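FORM 7B - TANDEM STRUCTURE REPORT

SECTION 1: FIRST PROTEIN
SEQUENCE AND TOKENS:
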Amino acid sequence: MQAHNIPIFKSWIPEWLARSVIFAVLMTSLFNFALYGRPMSMAGYYGVQPSDVQYAMVLTYASAVTFLALDFRITKYFAPRKYLIIGLTLNSVSSLICFYSKNWGVFLICGLVQGIACALICSIVLNMVFSRLQSTRARVIGYSIFYGAIQIAVPVYAIYSSVLLDVSDFNWLFFGLIVMLVALLFVILITMNSKARFHKKMPLYKVDWIGYLYYLTFSSVAGYILIYGQQLNWFDSTLIVLLTIFFIILLFLFIAREKRLRHPIINLQIFKAKNFIKGLLLLFVFYIFKGTTGLTYGYIEVVLGTDPLHIIPIWLAVILGTAVSMFVTARFILMGVSLIRIIITGFIIMACYYFYMLHFVSSTGETKDFILPLFIYGVSTGVLFVPIVSFMASSAPPKVAFNASMVGIFARFLGFSTSMAVNNYTQLYTRSEANDKVRESITEINPQLSLTLKNIQQAYLNAGNDIYTSKGASNAYLNYFIKEQILIHSTKDYYDVMLVGLLVVIVILIFLPGIQNIVLKLRKGSIPY
């Protein structure tokens, strides 16, 4: 029997166990991003700024995204089991180094390696999933399961991080990952065939390693500009100006190289399809609107004083909303409902989430009030993800359809990084505006100010404190209250901006010509990264 016809799993492995192994491998491949579920804990552990943690996540993401483009050729050379073992080993070794090291530079290097390992593992999972799905119906379900797992990974890992960090130090997150990786490694050695392949073996020649280095470098530079731009005051900073010039040069060299090669890492002919560009923009915009939950969780922790363990019900609501909506959306797609109508519906549901948040964000809110809006958020992401990816893939010409996946995952990376940049910029602007408004109402000539201070001071005196302690504590409490109000007002202002942006996108989609007639075409040969 030819190697590429040998079943991936051994003959004695039942189908339910094979599917369980595939799902376990998929969730483990994304596990490195669990480290960023508690950014303040990471920043405190390594002694860095929150923006450094953001860039570390972007760097890992960039490493995974860019290696996936190269990975398409490499998977045809190695047997899947061997490839998985390499990925799991890389991840285990880098996690072991991070477990014993508190050096930030070492962590960033390991993040690059972990991004590559994530791409290695994720690529095999995709092939294992979609090689088993022959009909269009099955492939739609496969899309939903795969992307559903990606969507629920963040809240799942947030729960894991919160539980573990409640009883141990940050570096034990790495230890937990190592245990899972080693256990999964033994499962793969036992259950998978060593000689099985998805394709005939192809030699590793004409692999565009130089193009990959260009791709990785300009993606990393773009991420740096977006994350640190606001902190460095954008183009007033010489470093940002130089990096922008460097990025443009790298991008130009990359495009020139890809156009010249017969086997480019990304076929740029894909950009000639107009509807594909529209789908790409939709994916980019979706990730900008999607990337605001960190602000919501921050508000719940800081203003409402909720500890991470008590946020678990909210994360569970996100998981439930995503899973249910993914299942329902898959049914609508199979029924032939217009993709763009589903997308418009998804954006409307997301607008409801922002509208709800605008009315419930206050200093007197309760944690349970946010279970419903976060469930709505989960529903909106579940409704939007598969239709947008399907819309984009269906718009691509058959000859270059595979490249739609490569460009699409880069758009997701860029949207994710941009959402952080928009969040950083808008938060600074809205906090400044909110600060001015609050300070205008709290002045020394305002008679309510002295009355409020006296009431606070009296409360401390009634609690048994002396006059000096009560006076200092009342001033500290008032300052804390002012900061709290500034955060609340800036959060609401930010949600206002997002809601207006969503309404603009919905109107554009309703009246934009040429996109209502996109028909779902899930080709057997295309793997949807």
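SECTION 2: SECOND PROTEIN
SEQUENCE AND TOKENS:
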Amino acid sequence: MKFALSTLSTAVMTVMLMGMSVATSANTNMDNVESQNDVPPVTVTQIVDADDERQTGAATAVQTDTTLSVGDNTAINGSASTMHSQGAEQQSRLATLIDPITHKAVDNSYPLEVSSFLSLEQAQNILLQVSPKLAANEAAIAASQYQTDALKTIDNPLVFARVSASAYHVEEDIDLSSLKNGIVNEINNSVDDVIPPIPPTTDLPNFGELVGERLPESYDFNRSGSTTGAGIGVVWPIYTAGRTTALTGASDARTQEAVADSLLDKNELYNTLIERYFKAQLAIIAAYLREDAYDTLQQTDHMAERLFEEGFISRVDRLEAQSALADAKSESVNANNDARLAMIALQRLLRTDYRIKPTTPLFVSSRPLPDVSYFQDLALANHPGLQKVAAKRAQAQQLHALSDTGYKPTVMLYGYGQVEKDPSWVAGISATWKLWGGLDKTASLASSNAQIRQADLSEIEVSDNLLLLVEKNWHDINNAQSRYQALQSNVDLAAEVLRLRQLGLQEGVNTTVDVVQAQTQSLKARTEQAQAANSYVQALAALMQSCGTPLAFNTYLNAADIQLPILYSE
């Protein structure tokens, strides 16, 4: 699978909406996450973005040349595969583009269109393509896999060729006087030992001097020339006692650890996306409620002004209405700013230079969750943390096997032949044992055994922590669900009280203070209920992450029977 890292340029850009409709129901099977269909673009203008609407932009993406696939327990289908195929088609247009946030040049990039109106599933699909962290993890996995592939051929025969060419020149004046004297003396001594004594009247020649006269005192040596040679050799480790298998196994286990780390980061990013996505949705609802309260208090202030002019209320009541209106306006401005900030946080995560408008509503399901043991079994079967521990244990086992090979020999075949008219060659087999020195084999084995034990104990600890985390998140969901349902009566009561207080103000029965207090209670009840819905969503996302199945969140989203209103829709 190829992943793309995309960023957004700061130039003038054109955006096409890639919205998808939000499904109101879905199959309750957690392993079946269905994607949604694309819809035509529409334009929606809302109060939150009234001050700064930037609807145009261009996106860039980095296509990493990685062919590794990272497993997950649920898959993103539909628009995800469409985006991946779109990236494949655009590989021929790869270029260097500028990241809009860091302003760094990103090589091997291609344009990527990102809508400003995004459902949660669309945002999840885009996150896979634009996240630098995920792209970096894929590069790390690829590097580890290539290292494993490189080690797999270490036992193959090594064939090499040698070619040499050289030129030489030697010039030297060699002193032969000492050699000459030695030869003369040696000859004279030998003659005296061999020839018997003769009469003194007989004169024999001096053989040493005769030979010495023919020997020079020195010799001038002067030689030059060139030589060439070529040969082919082979070295083949036919028996390494399992060292190669242990090395490749350890490298493969490191790759599995990198995959587990990538899954952990991906699940964390999914959770961060849900957190920012629905926090933005909550902030938008809060801004809408504050704006609605401000509109209501404007009507109350207008009525109070008329009643004051007609003498039905006092000046104090009139001033209280004006003060409440000013406070409502200030709170509305603050809520709008908070909503903008929440949308910017989502924008940064998806690496766009314009704000993202969420179209998937906050939701709550009135149906009870499955028993906590169901989710605990999911966590033990799917969580990447346990996969990482398993990879650590596999590494320790391979290191143990590698340490154990220190007691065994290495057998190699070798040969070398010269490429000449009358070639010479050599061939043979060798076996080597390490008798003493280097790493302590006993200590190395003890170390690997300790690492295996460490991995076994870590698995127990991680499993215990996961079970406790799943239990906590499961209870948090139930608490948020009951909280939301309990607040419904408060919302109904506050709405009815506000309606009666407004009618009472018109009849002169209630004061503006009564209306303001009723409005405050209504706003508080509706805001608290929206916060409870967000708590439910965040707890559900945390539960799915702790189970190692973050995309199963979409199944519960599509099956939810209670959805809060949204301001942005396609």
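SECTION 3: OBSERVATIONS ON SECOND PROTEIN
Confidence is low (pLDDT under 50) at residues 1-88.
The first strand starts at residue 4 and ends at 8.

SECTION 4: SIGNATURE
Preparer initials: ____
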